[in-house]
Design goal:
With 281 residues, this protein is mainly β. The chain contains 2 helices and 22 strands.
């Protein structure tokens, strides 16, 4: 081989080495994978990656849980607890679950939840934490579980249970009576049950307040700790005009015609267990 050719080949060798680096045992691809894996598992918490595919099924709007807050709309199905976790300003996880126009079963989590049943006959469980439940229209069953819960049955003949804790319960909604016969059960704790015409209230253990306008029935009134609160329209509070014991219990009637039945009671109630609340103008 001519000497001139060897000299020229030697001069080109560094460029050949730069273009084709030596193999390091074939682990380059694995090493790259290890780097990506480390990026997604720091501290066991979710991270936002530069590029991430959304593998949610558009028919169900259910993803794999990438930490992004979202509301879930059910289609007559059971929602798993904590599917829609988001963090409020206090640092406590909250969850929002929204039902469909059908018959849904919605479940909360071990922290405070917001649950909307929507139309249809829904079954809703808040579980632990201070929950806010709006069952919506239809004959619903709503149970708050432990914690101080706020539950509105909505339109329809509903069963509303507070559970343990100081609960606020409505048979219909906070705006007024829907005329349907609802069952409200406070459970343990100092509960407030707002009853409409034809509603039945059971306060359970604790000092309970039964707020009503007319025609409600109270199953377990205890004068030693419970209170009946009559709401009224106008500027002048009504007065009790009669207390009559009958087969169904004591019927307390006001001078405006409103009444309440206290089941299992025959003795008249005293003024310290009755209050009057004027409706907001």
């Amino acid at each position: 081989m001519p000497l001139e050719f060897l000299i020229a080949l030697t001069a080109l060798l560094p460029f050949a080495v730069a273009a084709f680096p030596f193999d390091k045992g074939g682990d380059d691809e694995d090493a790259s994978d290890d780097v990506v894996e480390d990026e997604t598992e720091i501290g066991g918490e979710d991270m936002i990656l530069p590029i991430e595919e959304d593998d949610a099924d558009p028919a169900t709007e259910e993803g794999t849980g990438d930490g992004t807050p979202e509301d879930i709309t059910g289609e007559a199905e059971t929602e798993a607890p904590g599917d829609t976790a988001e963090e409020d300003t206090s640092g406590i996880d909250t969850h929002t679950t929204i039902g469909s126009d059908g018959d849904d079963t919605l479940s909360g989590s071990e922290t405070g939840d917001t649950l909307f049943g929507g139309a249809g006959g829904d079954v809703i469980y808040g579980f632990a934490g201070s929950d806010s439940i709006d069952a919506g229209s239809g004959a619903d069953y709503a149970e708050g579980g432990s914690g101080g819960d706020t539950i509105a049955g909505g339109a329809g003949a509903d069963t509303v249970m507070g559970g343990s804790g100081d609960d606020l319960l409505w048979g219909s909604d906070a705006e007024g009576d829907d005329g349907e016969a609802d069952l409200l059960i406070g459970g343990s704790g100092d509960d407030t049950l707002t009853l409409g015409a034809g509603d039945l209230g059971l306060g359970g253990a604790g000092a309970d307040r039964f707020v009503l306008a007319d025609g409600a029935v109270i199953e377990d009134f205890d004068e030693a700790e419970d209170m009946v609160v009559f709401t009224y329209e106008g500027d002048i509070a009504p007065e009790i005009v009669s207390q009559v014991a009958g087969p169904s219990g004591l019927v307390v009637t006001l001078d405006n015609g409103a009444s309440v039945t206290l089941v299992g009671r025959s003795a008249p109630i005293t003024s310290h267990s009755v209050a009057f609340l004027g409706a907001a103008a």
